[in-house]
Specification:
2 copies of one chain form a homodimer.
Chain A: H1 4-14, H2 17-27, E1 31-32, H3 33-37, H4 44-56, E2 60-65, E3 68-73, H5 75-109
Antiparallel strand pairs in A: 1-3, 2-3
Helix pairs in contact in A: 1-4, 1-5
Chain B binds a DNA duplex (30 and 30 nucleotides) through helix 4.
Chain lengths: ~120, ~120
DNA sequence: CTGTTGGTCAAGCATGGACTTAAGTATAGG
DNA sequence: CCTATACTTAAGTCCATGCTTGACCAACAG
């Protein structure tokens, strides 16, 4: 649970639409900083700042060769987010299943409706 | 592609550690507002504000009965985020596969890499 | 009724984050 | 060497967001 820090960074990074749009571009292949900047209505400097956030969170990886920095996706960063989400959903759905089972058992002895329904007072 | 708005809301909502911690709590079962607030070092009002963000993004669902509002996870919200992530990762990994195939073909005929590669000075 | 609990609303503050401009560095090309 | 390219860094602006306080309201207990 020490990667809570990382999870935090990753989700924070994903929380920005511009950064996500850069990620969409990168998911179709590596790109240089200025290639990434071109379709955006942002300064190059701003793009660089976003890239720093993305790299620090581990979502992308960059390498500078000559004077051009090439960025590419590092799926293990995204996988962290995916795992977090899956864990929450699994927990929740398993809970629903167990609950369903209990209700099913009850209906054998008591004349209750099958699903989880509430009455209005 | 009109749910870009929704995707934005969901990721923004997930971008906050306090909100995620509430989601962790909720993934183990529904809870009232004050139950959610209790383990956090936040005012009740602040918690309520976070809950509004979470509900508007579709990640949770809340229902008020009497004077207590009960919150529960709505997995379809999280599923939206999961899908976005999966799509990016799939695209990227498929690309890597195709690239691997190309390289494999090339190594049969030519011992040189095809594309623009530079040496480090 | 009164008091308490559980939650809501409305300002307001204060910090952080996104962006910009501007100046600087290093590399490629002629 | 000179210039253009491809970033990089620093500094400052500005707005969104997170949080607090304080007043308020509705439901239930006694």
């Amino acid at each position: 649970m020490l990667d809570q820090q990382r999870v935090d960074q990753v989700f924070h990074a994903l929380g920005d639409a511009n950064r996500r749009s850069m990620l969409e571009r990168l998911s179709r292949g590596p790109a240089s900083v200025s290639q990434l900047a071109e379709p955006m209505s942002l300064t190059l400097a701003a793009v660089v700042q976003h890239l720093q956030v993305l790299e620090q969170s581990g979502i992308i990886r960059t390498e500078k060769v000559g004077r051009v920095r090439t960025c590419s996706l590092a799926p293990q960063g995204l996988r962290l987010a995916e795992r977090w989400i899956n864990e929450r959903m699994n927990l929740w759905e398993r809970r629903l299943d167990r609950l369903g089972d209990l209700l099913a058992e009850d209906t054998q002895s008591e004349p209750q409706p099958k699903k989880h329904e509430r009455k209005k007072p």
